[in-house]
Amino acid sequence: MIGGNHSIKIQSMCNTKTQDVNATVQQIHKLTECGCEIIRCAVPNEEAAVALGEIKKQITIPLVADIHFDYRLAILAMQNGADKIRINPGNIGSIDKIEAVVKEAKARNIPIRVGVNSGSLEKNLIEKYHGVTAEGIVESALDKVAIIEKMGYENLVVSIKTSDVLMCVKAHELISQRMDYPLHVGITEAGTVWSGNIKSAIGLGLILNQGIGDTIRVSLTGDPVQEVLSAKQILRTLGIRKGGIEVVSCPTCGRTQIDLIPLANKVEELVSGYDLSLKVAVMGCVVNGPGEAREADLGIAGGIGEGLLIKKGEIIRKVPENELLNTLKYELDHWSE
Ligand code: SF4
To answer: Which atom of ligand 1 approaches the CA of 285 most closely?
Structure first.
């Protein structure tokens, strides 16, 4: 369920060829394991639409079919088990074609995500608002929603996307005041893992922190696993999701006495495999390290060639530097809250 008081769901999109069922299912399993809750697949042709049926049988999370241009693919995707379809009614064609899609969705009670992108904003709206603007994007989305509502269907999710972060924030603020449908939120074409993460964190942070948004996707030019991990981190940072292990680590400085940067990265990788809710601190020296580590549930403060192991505020023992990672692993394996 999405919308209302349901939790904000994390989505991602496969970058495999949908018709390659094995590769797609494998990627969905990987994404599910790291926290993806809804998955979208591109449906550019008939083969991909038909493949959804086989994919559906092998996965455990809802499957969304992403359709552009061809209304028949939307219908075929629904007939093959898509749990939701994503269309931009603006590029599906005539009203008759949209109606045929809505009719099929209605018969199966399949939600339609009405997606509008700033890149495909109608000419008349660009002229009306003197360029691509938040107001124009919102009007475009509301027009599409009205078309489907007139056809008697309201099982809808709306997404309005633009790669301009502040315009995207404004558009979400405006649309949330004008309709009650669940919103799928994301910064589109955000960029590579580095820049996309920053843009998405700022954009999604500003939107979600106002209580707007029901599902999210972090779009990155990279492995979709990274999208899911980033989405989780954004929700946790905002206090929307609880649980999981939070790693705090110092930035290192001239006082750092252990090889901290690789260690912190390894610790972050290590903790992703645990279903625990706690804070782990990885600090470089005994000046600030013990204080910070004491506030965490589990911590390391580096000394010369060794580290202090700190547990629930108490210094437990000194551990040689090359055993620090294994020691943390042992503590996590035997953790009792
Ligand atoms: S914890 Fe120590 S090593 Fe890390 S930044 Fe602070 S002073 Fe430097």
So the answer is: 2
From the candidate CATH numbers 3.40.50.2300, 3.90.550.10, 3.40.1190.10, 3.20.20.20, the one assigned to the domain spanning 9-237: 3.20.20.20
Nearest CA-CA partner of 89 in 104, 106, 108, 69:
69
Going by C-alpha positions, the residue among 160, 210, 167, 154 that lies closest to residue 186 is: 160
pTM: 0.90
CA-proximal residue: ligand 1, atom 6 (nearest) = 288
Cα 87 → chain centroid: 19
Return the percentage of the chain with pLDDT > 90, whole number: 82
Topology of domain 245-333 in CATH is: Sulfite Reductase Hemoprotein; domain 1 (3.30.413)
Cα(255) to centroid(ligand 1), Å:
6
pLDDT above 70: residue 337: no
